[in-house]
Amino acid sequence: MALQDPLDRTAARKPAHKPATRADFIDHDDKAMLRAAREATRDLGTARAGIYWPDMLGSAALGYAMLAAAILADNPLIMLGAGLVSALALYRALLFIHELTHIHRDALPGFRIAWNLLVGIPLLTPSFMYEGVHTLHHKRTQYGTVEDPEYLPLALMKPWSLPVFVLIALLAPAALLLRSALLVPLGLVIPPLRTLVWQRASALMINPQFRRKPPEGAFRTMVIWQELGAFIWAWTLLASLLLLGWRPLLIALAVVSLTATLNQLRTLVAHLWENDGEPMTVTAQFLDSVNVPPPGPTAELWAPVGLRYHALHHLMPSMPYHDLPEAHRRLVRELGHPSTYDGANHPGMLVLVARIANSTMLRRPAS
Q1: Alpha-carbon gap, residue 219 to 221, rounded angstroms
Q2: Which tens digits make up the pLDDT trace of 290-343?
Q3: For 316, left (φ over 0), alpha (ψ -120 to 50), or beta?
């Protein structure tokens, strides 16, 4: 599909020797690219139950089957192999929480409840921990600011902050178990603790300055039943120690720790993290975000469920994950090379980690 105004096509193009960057569009948008994103994808955007349900259910089933195999295995190599497959499959199943925050509530009847019962609550990460939070990350006036729960200027921080950022994810499963089993019920009788847990420990966020607002209306009802389910499951896990001993729970925690660490690595390269708290245009937000399109062979493992097209997702947040590859192909074909769109496409995780690491090490301390 061609752009309506041929003069607009050149607006999205950049000189071949200089890829577009966030700094190029701090004060203005590339309207040609934004128009192309709308026009070229008009027939996309419907969440397809025939893709969502088999993908989520199959990922969860494989994850739990391989977790059981890891727990029952006597051979250490079999245990490690099954544990790795389990971590990857559960990781894919878990990341459907991202889709739940964007698809319309009526788009996939029963999917939210099923996901919470099969994935969210068993992994002690029910959907309320992302719903009502992640959408703030997509607000044009909040992205990259102190009001964004999912943004830190990691590229501008100290070098030691990067390994700490990744390794802290190893503690996530134990922290979630402590939260659901003890902190939430204690909060019922200690109001200040309840407020603290909700504001600081009830959202999947990385910004320590973010404080979550109290839930209201129907969302509050959803929070209550999901918290109850997580509480019951947390104590079921702890009670299993009396019957099964420590081995099953420790292996499960290790597998979920690997999943959490993989997700933290993906988060580390989901953006370039170069904004220091200033509001940005949509185009600048897009260029501060990351696509890792094919032919990168491993991106679908560490950035599944459409997250390898994270920058494109910031252009079209409501686009279902299964339509993002086609949307990407159309925009590349429509805008050609070079274009502003090229500036958000990167070759892989290692290159992105190296870029952020170099930025932290070469950054001069403030005088």
Answers
A1: 5
A2: 999 998 779 999 999 999 999 999 999 999 999 999 999 999 999 988 899 999
A3: beta
> pLDDT at position 1, please?
34
The CB density around residue 102, as the number of other CB atoms within 10 Å, is: 20
pTM: 0.91
Strand partners, 291: 309, 345
pLDDT at 48 > cutoff 60: yes
CB 59 within 8 Å of CB 93: yes
**Other Cβ atoms within 10 Å of 284 Cβ, number:** 27
CA–CA distances in Å: residue 306 to residues 114, 125, 282, 309, 324: 20, 20, 20, 6, 6
